[in-house]
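Dear colleagues,

I hope this message finds you well. In preparation for our joint manuscript, I am sending the DoxX-like protein (Actinomadura hallensis) sequence together with its predicted structure, so that both groups work from identical material. I would be grateful if you could confirm receipt.
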Amino acid sequence: MRYIARPHQLPVRLAVGAFVLNSGLSKLKAGEETAQQTHGTAKTAYPMVESHDPQDFTRKLGAFEVALGGALVVPLVPSAVAGAALTAFAAGLTGLYLRIPGMREPGGLRPTEQGIGLAKDIWLVGIGASLVLDEVARLRAERRGRS
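The corresponding structure tokens are as follows:
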């Protein structure tokens, strides 16, 4: 595993990392109303979240986002690791889009006006998967070169 991001990965890692890091920092300093809203959205899609305290849930989510954003921004974190974490996180966000009523047009995947913001999170899945696949391809090429 490579322990430094390759130059062509840096723009996407910095852009996405800064965005996720900012989101996490905002959640860490969120007030009660924001925590209630974040928790309410999450428990609509993921009922197991309901038992968590809204403020605690939002704080933990914010801490995870800060860690993820930091992993993307710091080029010493392997792209395969940062990409896998981003893919998993973004899959959870995409789950919100797929599970919350009113986010999609009836009978399809096209977003409603309200769902556009959540539908855009599919880009993060693609970016994370691309980082992982780029590293897998690099490892395969290295192995072929050694044989």
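For the figure legend, we might mention the following. Helices lie at 10-28, 32-45, 54-73, 79-99, 116-119, 122-146. Residues 122-146 form the longest helix (25 residues).

With kind regards,
E.M.
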